[in-house]
Amino acid sequence: MNNIRELCLKYTYLSNKDIEAIQSISKTLQFIADSSKADVFIDCLSKTKSDSAIVVVSAKPRNSQSLYKENVVGKLAIRKNEPAVIRTLQTGIPSRDIKAITQENIIVKQNVEPIKNEKNEVIAVIISEKDVTEDVKENKKLEILAETNEELISQIEGKKIKYGNGDIAYHVNDAILIFDEDGILRFKNPVADELYKKLGYNQELIGMDFSNLALSKSTLSQIIEKKSIEVEEIDIGDMSFQIKYISQGSKVLKLAMLIKDITDVKEKERELILKSVVIKEIHHRVKNNLQTIASLLRLQSRRIHSEEFTIAINESINRILSIAITHEILAKQGIDEVNIKDVINKIKRFMVTLDKRDDLDLSIEIEGDDLIISSDKSTAVALVVNEAIQNCIKHAFVGKNSGKIVVKIEKGNSYSTVSVRDDGIGFDVNSISNSSLGLMIINSLVSDKLKGNLNIQSNENGTNLLFDFKN
């Protein structure tokens, strides 16, 4: 009993409660070995080596010859040699009469039953092994092949779709297995052979029962009763599969099971999720750093009483926070694209309006289309809109008690436009100073970053700044 505990603690992730359950069941192992005249073992999934199990206890029959010369407790059972053991440990599905190779290189037939805990989790398996020569099923297999040969020729060969020089079933990437109404495998393609070899099956698949080839817990009768195409995804060890079941009318070709190995796809999905988490964390840190810089500048501005310096600091804070907004959204989404409308709405909410007169009733509206663009473009657009709104607040409403700024987004097929319009006093476009920092920033971003065009129109009814960029 102590040996079981030591092995489980050393080689598995099992809890004390699970180990106690295995110890309890092990008390009946000798009885099972004697009654079945077979070598009996309890194996648990190993934590030290993938696709392997550790033998924690064994019992040899006392009333018949054991197949083993030595004690194999503490040794590993690997998928390649004992596929039924790993299959049942990973899926919880019993396995019947599956060929295996023992630790002493003897070919045996295994029957494997799962041992489950109170949470219905598989914690171990009981394995019963008999000499392969005692179980003669080859004659039945030959009878099956002879009985179905004619129907297979008429229903598969006669109706097959040609692909080059052969049957399409031999050229597809999916494993194809076809069972009769009794659940006996009647047809399989080469991909099926390769897939089950990966799972450790070393024997001929034709003639095997559905229950021994099933990779999920669905039974043959459950699948056939649904009378529809059923699709499910399962994980077995480090491998992932998509299984499709198609019920058919023929008694001999009752159920088609198509299996696609999607291990690489799932691995790429996991890599993308991991990258997404990393990217989100990077954007989160960049956003925090930018906000810290803005906070430091704000503290600095309070210590200096120069009006010109305060204005310059506030403008810089707005620019920094405009960039931070894009990173804030990216930190939540984990992808490199954002809705620019969301970004501009956030600019509107955080806009530092220290330049606005207390007696000015100002409204800022965002309208138009949702537009998804890359983070690079989003940062540039955010800065342009920020500069435009700041200019409106500073210059557009001199001598007025109220004002309105409208930012409009228009999504086009190839190019999209963003306009910032106010109902202020307007100005002479030709008199704009080339030394204006705000205008220099806008021109640079539109032409260099966005590769777009900038147009400014103004009269006594207000000003409209419009720029475009490629989607």
From TrEMBL:
List this protein's GO terms for biological process: phosphorelay signal transduction system
Record-linked SUPFAM superfamilies = ATPase domain of HSP90 chaperone/DNA topoisomerase II/histidine kinase (SSF55874)
Residues spanning the membrane = none
Q: Top enzyme class of this protein?
A: transferase
PROSITE patterns reported for this sequence: HIS_KIN (PS50109)
Reported EC number(s) for this entry are 2.7.13.3
Q: Mind listing the UniProt keywords for this protein, alphabetically?
A: ATP-binding, Kinase, Nucleotide-binding, Phosphoprotein, Transferase, Two-component regulatory system
An example of a GO molecular function for this protein is: ATP binding
Out of the domains of life, which is the source?
Answer: Bacteria
User: Taking every annotated instance into account, which residue ranges of this chain make up the domain Histidine kinase?
Assistant: 281-471
Q: Which reaction does it catalyse?
A: ATP + protein L-histidine = ADP + protein N-phospho-L-histidine
Database matches in InterPro entries: H_kinase_PdtaS_GAF_sf, HATPase_C_sf, HATPase_dom, His_kinase_dom, PdtaS_GAF, Sig_transdc_His_kin_sub2_dim/P
Q: Which Gene3D superfamilies match?
A: GAF domain, Histidine kinase-like ATPase, C-terminal domain, PAS domain
Name of the molecule in the record: histidine kinase
Protein source organism: Clostridium senegalense
